[in-house]
Design brief:
Its EC number is 4.2.1.10. By secondary structure, the protein is α/β, with parallel strands linked by helices. The protein contains five helices and five strands; from the N terminus they run βααβαβαββα. A five-stranded parallel β-sheet has the order 2-1-3-4-5, with helices on both faces. α3 runs parallel beside α4.
C-alpha cells in the first residue's frame, strides 16, 4: 500500500510555530515514528508552501497511490484549484487538520477540499494523520 502525506503552507514550521496549538514535535520526527509503526505501508511525505507544487504532487500520485492524507493548511479555506485537483484524480484523499478548525476563526470553517475528499479529520493533533492512515488500512 502506497500512501502520501501532503502538507501545505507553514507546516514546515511544526515544532516551532504556535506550540500551544500545534505542539513541539517537528513533522519529520512524527513521520519517522509513523514509518516505524506502519512499516508494512509505503509512506511518502511532501511539504510545500506553494499552491501549484501541491497541485502538481496531487496530479503526480493521484492515479497510482492508494491514498493521500492532505493537510493543505490555509489553502483549505482559499484554494478552489486544490479542490478541483482532488476532484480530478482517482486516489482517495482525506483532509486532515491538527487543530479543530471549527473552534477557530470563522473563515476556517469553510473547506474547498472537503466536498471532494473521502473524509475529514480535525482536532486530534498530529494523531489526525495516524487516524487518516488507519482509515486506509
Amino acid at each position: 500500500m502506497k500512501i502520501l502525506i501532503l502538507n501545505g503552507p507553514n507546516l514546515n514550521l511544526l515544532g516551532k510555530r504556535e506550540p500551544s496549538i500545534y505542539g513541539n514535535l517537528t513533522f519529520e520526527e512524527f513521520f519517522k515514528n509513523l514509518q516505524k509503526r506502519y512499516a508494512d505501508v509505503e509512506l511518502h511525505y511532501f511539504q510545500s508552501n506553494v499552491e501549484g507544487e501541491l497541485i502538481n504532487k496531487l496530479h503526480e500520485v493521484g492515479f497510482s497511490f492508494d491514498g493521500i492524507i492532505l493537510n493543505a493548511g490555509a489553502y483549505t479555506h482559499t484554494s478552489v484549484a486544490i479542490g478541483d485537483a482532488i476532484k480530478g484524480i482517482e486516489t482517495p484523499v482525506i483532509e486532515v487538520h491538527i487543530s479543530n478548525v471549527h473552534a477557530r476563526e470563522d473563515f476556517r470553517h469553510v473547506s474547498y477540499i472537503a466536498p471532494n475528499a473521502k473524509g475529514v479529520i480535525a482536532g486530534f493533533g498530529l494523531q489526525s494523520y495516524e487516524l487518516a492512515l488507519i482509515s486506509f488500512l
